Amino acid sequence: MRYELVIFDNDGVLVDSEPIANTILAGYLTELGHPTSYEESLRDYMGAAVHRVHDLVEERGGEKLPADFEATLYARTFAAFQQELVAVDGAEDVLGKLVADGVDYCVASSGSHEKIRVGHRKTGIDQWFEEEWIFSSEDVGRGKPAPDLFLHAAERMGVAPERCVVIEDSPLGVEAARAAGMDVYGFTSMMPADRLTGVTGYFSDMSQLPELLA
Length: 214
Hints:
Layout lengths: L4 E4 L9 H14 L6 H8 L5 H11 L7 H16 L6 H11 L2 E6 L3 H11 L10 E3 L11 H10 L6 E5 L2 H9 L3 E5 L13 E3 L5 H5 L1
Parallel strand pairs: 1-2, 1-4, 2-3, 4-5, 5-6
C-alpha cells in the first residue's frame, strides 16, 4: 500500500444516501418557493455542507431560508434513511481489506456528525469506525471545496497530507482533496467521470478500489 491513510467521503461512497437526500432536498426547496429538480440538487449541492444551500438560495433569490430549515430537512432525511438507506455495495469489503492490510482509514464528510452516525447505524457501517475516525464539516470553519476538512482529518490521524488518499464522488470533494495536496480517486457510480476533473484515477465499482490503492 503506497498510502498511510485512506480518507473516505461518506454520502455516496460508504452509504448510498445521495439519491435519498437530494430527492428530499429538491422537494423541500420547491415547497419553500425555490423550484429545484433532483438533477439541479445533485449539480449544486452534492458533496456540500448545508450552508451552501443557504448561500446559493439567498444569492439567487435574495431570500433567506427559514430558521428551522436544517431541522426540518434533517428530520425528513433521517426518517427516509430509516426506511431506505443501505451501504454502498462493496464498501464493507473495502474496509475489511484495509483492516486486514493494516492500513489506517477515516471518514471526512460534509454532513453533520448526527447525519453520519444515523447513516452508519442504519447500514451497519458503524462497526468499522471508532469515534475518533469520524470527521465532519462541523469540525472546521469551511466545508468542501475548501481543503480544511481533509487537512483536519489528516492532522488528527497523524499522517502528512502527501501520504493520504481521498475517495470522493463529487466535484466539490475532489476540489477539496486536490487543494489539500492529496491524491484522490473518483467514484463514478452517480457522477460522470468528466465532472470529476483532476482525479488520480476513476472507478465505478468498489471492487476496483483495492487494486487502485495498491
